[in-house]
Amino acid sequence: MRTGNNTLPDYTDPPVDETYASIQFAPIPGFGIPHFGLFWPEIRKDFPNFQVQAPVPSATEQLEAGFRNAPSFGIQLVSSPDVRCWFLDKTQNRLIQIQNDRFIHNWRRIKGDEPYPHYPALRETLEKEWRRFCDFLTREKLGAPQVNQCEVTYINHIEYDKGWKEYSELSKVITAWAPPAESSFLPPPERVNMEVHYRIRDNLGRLHVSLTPAIRARDGKEVLQLMLLARGAPASSSVEDVFRWLDVGREWVVRGFADFTTQAMQKMWGRI
Mean pLDDT throughout 243-260? Predict the structure, then answer.
């Protein structure tokens, strides 16, 4: 999680398995399936492969009424377009996702041993491709995207037998879990699912933290999946304001990860 801001925590071997930054905007009138094909030649040198996927529902943080009175996860789901297209690089580690109301840049591990490229490199790619997409929309006379939400998400895979062995030792992994008292009636839990939600400063959005058992697709291995998702609205649709919010969201994800996990685990991940 390296950055130009040296005050943020950094790790030589972080457990991050996937990360994405998403820019959501109002549906673009007139944007249809042919535009995916028209746009692809502009990025095909870097993203030569494609897949067609189901769309991601739009999501908006409801901050005015407070989380207690907001829908589940503090979001509002809205109808979404019919198609989402993935444009993948040769390694399939990096991809751009586009639909009528969303633009996403992903990095993910495929083999499992790929080095994490760190945020500045991912941010640079996202900004380059976002500007290219906006220029395409202008040339096609579809107008500039009206951005309403941004997201930064890190998905971490915490493996068993690396600093901990079972759920009775969960307090070795996360700070929010206290070890059971000697007089405790309950046995150690078999599984744990946890959700925690935090308001980002100045009412800029929320940080959602979830901890769930998961089976990793590439090797069938059971892991503890720790996902941190920051979501909120930028001050405007300008590139500067959009990426200013993404930087804030990334800061909350990184600092939230450091607060949520124990120093012993961070030492194992090579915290600098």
Answer: 98
